[in-house]
Fold:
Amino acid sequence: MQQFQPGIFNVLDDKKRELQAQGRKVWNLSVGTPDFHPDQNVLDAAAKAIADPNNFKYSLGNLPELVEAVQSWYRRRYGVELAADEITSVNGSQEGLAHIGWALCDPGDIVLCPNPGYPIFEIGPWLTGAEILYYELLPENDFLPDLNAIPEETAKKAKAIVVSYPANPVAKAAPRSFYEELVAWAKKYNVIVLHDNAYSEIIFDGRKGISFLSVPGAMEVGVEFNSLSKTYCLTGGRISFVMGNRDIIKKFATLRSQIDYGIFLPVQYAAIEALNGPQDGVERRRAMYQQRRDALCGGFRSIGWNVPDSEGSMFVWAPLPEGYTDSVEFCFELLEKSGVLCTPGSAFGSLGADHVRFALTMPPEQIAEAVEAVRNSGMIR
Ligand SMILES: Cc1ncc(COP(=O)(O)O)c(C=O)c1O
Structure:
């Protein structure tokens, strides 16, 4: 439990409240909760389902129409064919990633995780007693793993590798050639791939999100998490799916049958509508995230802070400006001097300590105000 002490987020939150109490304006670009609403057809499906008292029972599993909707979405969107027993649901990818290690790892097994990376990737397997080793995501490598840099001995012993693109926090997308390399590497060393595809639909400049499962051989080596949270603004609904290798899915579903009585039925009906219904909302939001990305990255560059354009995800990964070396100190000073709240990169691993992360959770006009406040702080030289 000592690993889970109240962290930097609580301290920053206290500071934010203190400023707000003084009447200061705060732009909170720290947490990745979308400010968009679900589409009306999805809300209507949920409202209709919630009016039926039968839908308040334990669901004990997924509605067949929901499994079909996932199959059809994966076929349409990625050209991937999935059998019903190659799919299981989770109460959000966060919960799924927290628990999948229990189905796969023995104490002492090695799990490879990105540094910097999204914290649950390592916390889940670590809770099972697995040993976490890191692969590095470096700017000079385009924030992609250099699989050849993983020592042969480590690769041979590793049980699983967690990979996720478009990536939180580094905001990069991965090309298909990377996934091909990953599948070949995983086969060679007999390592399970856990791919988190939370942001496949939030990707910019005409790129198209890729399913790891669309790469030949992927179904033999791994599974993919795909969340409805960000794609359909259903973060509070807690619904995601894990798909891919049948044996892994079977083990995970068996484990889950002990701890999970199924997703709330109105949420399942909302998900069916989201997956089967019109997809123009997804496109509209992608375009709006891109406008926000342009307002923030372009805005920062216009005031002399050289922040690269995000390729995907709802985040911006900004190298600390000249004169700063500690992301925590920088965040506090930025909040104090400008009212702009971001997340210290060190929250995502040691290699994040020279970056900060901004979430694209405000319209471009407000982002422009935040950029102006950063300019007025005098911190960008
Ligand atoms: C990379 C990544 N995976 C998973 C999640 C959590 O998704 P869910 O809402 O499905 O639990 C997030 C949320 O920020 C995320 O950034």
In short: Residues 32, 92-94, 118, 164, 168, 196, 198, 227, 229, 235, 240 surround pyridoxal-5'-phosphate (CB under 6 Å). The two ends are 41 Å apart (CA to CA).
